[in-house]
Amino acid sequence: MARGGLSASSLLPILLVVLHLIPHTSQLQSSQSQTLLQIRKHLNYPTILSHWNSSTDFCNTDPEPSLTIVCYEDSVTQLHVIGKEGSRLLPRNFSIDSLFTTLGRLPSLKVLSLVSLGLWGPLPAKISRLSSLEIVNMSSNFLYGAVPQEISLLKDLQTLILDYNMLNGGVPDGLSALPALAVLSLKNNSLGGPLPDSLSTMENLRVLALSRNRLTGEVPDLSGLRNLQVLDVEDNLLGPQFPRLGNKVVTLVLKKNRFNSGIPPEVVSFFQLQQLDISLNRFVGPFPLLLLSLPSIRYLNVEGNRLTGMLFENTSCNAELGFVDLSSNLLTGVLPKCLVSDSKGRIVRYAGNCLATQSQSQSQHPRPFCRNEALAVGIVHRKQKKGSAEKAVIASSVVGGVAGGLALTAILTWTILRWKNMRTVVRRPPRKLIAEKASTEFSSKLVSDASNLFFHLNALFPYYLRFVV
Ligand SMILES: *[C@@H]1O[C@H](CO)[C@@H](O)[C@H](O)[C@H]1NC(C)=O
Ligand SMILES: *[C@@H]1O[C@H](CO)[C@@H](O)[C@H](O)[C@H]1NC(C)=O
């Protein structure tokens, strides 16, 4: 008896400890469960949510890559729903406005990923009611219209990702009012106009990804952004000056724009730079040899510019450099020994320069070609005129003599090449599912102008429905 009593009293604390160790499961407020089921209805019952029902314990289901719900206490703090790639537009009775009204009933929502779900419509201003939002990823949908200014009311917003949509208008000016914004990614949309100067004040910005839009003009001075690591503006109409950046930059992609300045000397002090792609622009002036030996550089692409200068056999390279493309510039001299193909699987391209090389596959121009082209570029550059080929011709004929004749031939060749090049660079509208589906029945004007979509949805839907049914 005494023995039994002793053991019971000694077991009690153990029992309490064990009970305490059982994970504390949070039971979602039933109103929030209703809200989630409502969201599923708005999303037209996607397959990923097919197992949801009124007794689902939303807070305690195993996270999957395509569906994750995170709760804190009895509220949803994270909602990730990732549909199938290439998902079609939601049907006509979808209302993005109603979806956001419903999302507004999850007041603790900090992270929202609604990716590839066929969402369409303009991003509603009432997104600002989701005032706890820190991370938003609504990539690969059919959002159109402008990014609403009200987004700047989301004071805790750190990451805004709206890639692969059909947004137009400009990059909103008000974003600079978001003190915590670190990642802004608006790739593959139809954003136009110049970048707002206020970008230069976004001190916490770490990633600015704006590739494949129609942005024009100069990149604002970003040299004050001490945290900026990634600037990707590939395939826009930006230029002509090389952007001003802080020296912490890790990835810099200026590919396929309208830059035609020289490469500023500070670039060789970007000691963390791993990836530099300035290809398919019209950069001029000397190619800084030090780019090859930047301490962190792995990927260097300067293809298709008009960079001049001489390479030397003993020019040194960073050992980590895995990809170098110097092709189609005006470089002379010899390919550095450190770039001659080795067994490390490094890719090196240098065709279309005037280098002394035995390589059959990477054919070179004769030396005078680069000299004359460089001369032509120099004249054009000094004059700072667009389409100044004729003026360059006049200027070069003033030089006279054999050199002038050679330069003239070179300029004409260059003009023709440039013209050919420009033809291949003509932009295509974003290639989206809707574009593919629509192009058979609708004018390409409609496809290329996302704003028109709004007015043509009624025309589009019968076709879409026919396709689905
Ligand atoms: C849209 O219509 C479909 C079919 O009529 C229906 O099942 C669905 O619930 C409707 N969606 C909404 C959000 O009302
Ligand atoms: C947005 O979410 C999708 C799906 O999870 C993911 O693949 C993508 O990388 C995210 N975008 C960014 C920029 O993190």
Describe it for me?
The strands form four sheets. Strands 1-2-3-5-7-9-11-13-15-16-18-20-22 form a 13-stranded mixed beta sheet, with no helix packed on it. The chain contains nine helices and 23 strands. Helix 3 links the parallel strand 2 and strand 3. By secondary structure, the chain is of the alpha/beta class. It is elongated and about 80 Å long. Helix 4 packs across helix 5 (389-399) and helix 5 (389-399) packs antiparallel against helix 6. The protein has helices at 2-21, 30-42, 96-103, 367-383, 389-399, 401-425, 433-439, 444-448, 450-468, and strands at residues 67-72, 75-82, 111-115, 120-122, 135-137, 142-145, 159-161, 166-167, 183-185, 192-194, 207-209, 214-217, 230-232, 237-238, 251-253, 275-277, 284-286, 299-301, 306-311, 323-325, 330-334, 347-349, 354-356. The chain binds 2-acetamido-2-deoxy-beta-D-glucopyranose (2 copies).
Short structural summary:
The chain is α/β, with parallel strands linked by helices and 469 residues long.
Q: Order of strands side by side in the largest beta sheet?
A: 1-2-3-5-7-9-11-13-15-16-18-20-22
What small-molecule ligands were found? 2-acetamido-2-deoxy-beta-D-glucopyranose
Percent of residues in helices: 25-40%
> Percent of residues in beta strands?
15-25%
Features:
binds 2-acetamido-2-deoxy-beta-D-glucopyranose, 13-stranded mixed sheet, alpha/beta, four-stranded parallel sheet, 469 residues
Set down the secondary structure blueprint.
Blueprint: H1 2-21, H2 30-42, E1 67-72, E2 75-82, H3 96-103, E3 111-115, E4 120-122, E5 135-137, E6 142-145, E7 159-161, E8 166-167, E9 183-185, E10 192-194, E11 207-209, E12 214-217, E13 230-232, E14 237-238, E15 251-253, E16 275-277, E17 284-286, E18 299-301, E19 306-311, E20 323-325, E21 330-334, E22 347-349, E23 354-356, H4 367-383, H5 389-399, H6 401-425, H7 433-439, H8 444-448, H9 450-468
Parallel strand pairs: 2-3, 3-5, 4-6, 5-7, 6-8, 7-9, 9-11, 10-12, 11-13, 12-14, 13-15, 15-16, 16-18, 17-19, 18-20, 19-21, 20-22, 21-23
Antiparallel strand pairs: 1-2
Helix pairs in contact: 2-3, 4-5, 4-6, 5-6
The site of one 2-acetamido-2-deoxy-beta-D-glucopyranose has 7 residues, from strand 3.
